[in-house]
Amino acid sequence: MSDTLLIIEDNEQNFYMMRFLLEKNGFHIIGAENGRKGIDMAIEHLPTAILLDIQLPEMDGYAVARELKRNKALSRTPIIAVTSYAMAGDREQILAAGATGYIEKPIDPDTFVDQIIRYLPRRRDNQEA
């Protein structure tokens, strides 16, 4: 059984690139184009991890991360911010909102999957064995 990852991303090109790289490496991908839909999908599917853009329509990634962490069923689900926000303090702010990790865009296709795997203990442990 493959891990299901939820990508909350409003940019179609970014979503496509992440989905392509992750599916090629055996992940099952579901997606949402805004924060509200992402929260609903997370509750419905209980993914292994959530990849979250910060700049989203309707609800920004900070609000999404806080709401996801308040949900008991999702409180331990890794949230990885994948964002072009790279100003001083942005990383700390999203981590304080509940994100587990932070990856800057543009993503590097050569390292992206490994960056995600390090937040997935079962996959990471299998890779190190």
Query: How many helical stretches?
Result: 6
The CATH superfamily title: Response regulator
Spans with pLDDT under 50 lasting ≥5 residues?
A: none
Helix content: 40-55%
Structural class: alpha/beta
What is the helix/strand order? EHEHEHEHEHH
Distance between the termini: 19 Å
Compute the number of strand runs.
5
Please report the first level of CATH classification, the CATH class: Alpha Beta
Could you explain the architecture of this structure?
InterPro entries: Bact_response_regulator, CheY-like_superfamily, Sig_transdc_resp-reg_receiver. One of its GO terms (biological process) is phosphorelay signal transduction system. It comes from Desulfatitalea alkaliphila. The protein is α/β, with parallel strands linked by helices. The protein has a single domain, classed as Rossmann fold (3-Layer(aba) Sandwich). 43% of the residues lie in helices and 18% in strands. It has six helices and five strands; from the N terminus they run βαβαβαβαβαα. It has a five-stranded parallel sheet with strand order 2-1-3-4-5, with helices on both faces. The longest helix is centred in the first third of the chain and has 13 residues. The protein is globular and about 30 Å long. The two termini are 19 Å apart.
Briefly summarize what is shown:
This protein is an alpha/beta fold and 129 residues long. The chain contains six helices and five strands; from the N terminus they run βαβαβαβαβαα.
